[in-house]
Design a protein that fits this description.
single chain, 372 residues, alpha/beta, Glutaredoxin, 44% helix, globular
Length: 372
């Protein structure tokens, strides 16, 4: 899409590099556009231009238009560099391509390698001061992406460098969205005190209060299968190591399909008791998974509480994280798995899950439920 036969389209409002990234982000399904990256549009265009582009894909897609992040009063049409991509933007776009193309368990390390090779040298504070807002937003997005996938100290520090420049330019009032993302990165890298202080330092971001993180005394780096267990009132997260001896069910969770699964399974007369006695519903670490979402999950499903893992390294058997995915473990080793929880499938997934639990000896043979 774009300029054809001398005609213009709404996509022409995007500078050349942004247009390339937006097109790279499009994911098509059997019914049309399945998803797109809203950040590309939100960082580049005023609201009317965003709405016009998404209207190209129909009313259903246009309903999901992101809010523009440009300052109020930004001109309807920004001065566009449509004929060329500068060196820094070219490097960023090459990195962006890697993030869209890499999937599976090796993706975090490959994205981190691409970031280190293409962009790591751009985060010197003195260089950041010379960038315009558009290029600063690119570097923020790149650092946020790599820190979210592989929260190593150097990647979080790259985020902090851009964040500090945002604070300088905003005279102490950075955008709430950046404060929230910065706190999540600090949480994911286990810098809990720094994350808490961020919320205190920038009250206008209106961040929800963090729970107390209760860690064991002494060196716990060798503890396996570490998780954070939330207290009933949501005010504390207690670090512990899960006991995976014997036969256990482990569910990788964290999306609305997982909520469908826990609601259906908790109400199920056969699956409910089996899961209550043997299952762990696992979510990603604090900062990767939203703590408030875990609070709400546990409020609704107290008999199937969500447990946030401490880090991915402590769960090497869970190389990927489909949501939900059900695993039967024998003494910590996966012996059977089932992915997904589609509603409206006439109970086929429930029967498949029942079969998996029968094979593991967690439920007996029961008569099929009659259709209502």
């Amino acid at each position: 899409m774009g300029r054809q036969a001398g005609r213009t389209t709404p996509l022409d409002a995007l500078a050349l590099g942004a247009r390339e990234r937006f097109l790279l982000s499009l994911v098509w399904g059997s019914r049309g556009l399945g998803s797109f990256d809203p950040d590309v549009l939100a960082d580049e265009l005023p609201q009317p231009r965003i709405d016009a582009i998404l209207q190209l894909f129909g009313d259903e897609v246009a309903r999901h238009a992101p809010r523009s992040r440009l300052p109020a009063g930004t001109a309807e049409s920004r001065p566009a560099a449509t004929d060329r991509i500068g060196p820094l933007e070219r490097r960023y776009t090459d990195f962006y391509r890697v993030t869209r193309e890499q999937h599976g368990p090796d993706a975090p390390s490959l994205v981190a390698q691409s970031f280190d090779a293409l962009l790591a040298d751009a985060y010197d504070p003195r260089q950041l001061q010379d960038l315009d807002e558009r290029h600063l937003a690119m570097l923020w997005n790149a650092a946020r992406t790599v820190a979210g996938l592989a929260p190593s100290p150097r990647h979080v520090e790259a985020m902090e460098a851009v964040f500090d420049e945002s604070v300088r330019r905003s005279r102490g009032q950075p955008p709430a969205e950046r404060v929230r993302a910065m706190r999540n990165a600090l949480l994911a890298s286990h810098r809990f005190d720094a994350a808490r202080q961020l919320g205190v330092r920038y009250p206008t971001a209106a961040l929800s209060p963090l729970p107390a993180f209760i860690e064991p005394t002494g060196d716990h780096s060798s503890m396996r299968h570490g998780i954070w267990r939330m207290s009933g009132d949501g005010s504390r997260l207690q670090y512990e190591s899960l006991d995976l001896r014997g036969t256990r069910i482990v569910v990788t969770a964290g999306c609305h399909f997982s909520l469908d699964a826990v609601a259906d399974i908790s109400a199920d007369p056969v699956l409910g008791p089996a899961f209550a006695g043997h299952a762990y519903w696992l979510m990603q670490p604090p900062g990767v998974e939203d703590i408030d979402a875990v609070r709400e999950w546990n409020r609704r499903f107290s008999r199937a509480p969500a447990l946030m893992i401490h880090d991915r390294e402590g769960w090497p058997m869970l190389a990927d994280w489909p949501m939900p995915e059900f695993h039967v473990l024998q003494d910590g080793r996966i012996v059977d798995s089932l992915t997904g929880w589609p509603r409206g499938d006439d109970g086929r997934q429930r029967e498949a899950l029942m079969g998996m639990l029968r094979r593991a000896g967690l439920i007996g043979h029961v008569r099929p439920r009659r259709a209502p």
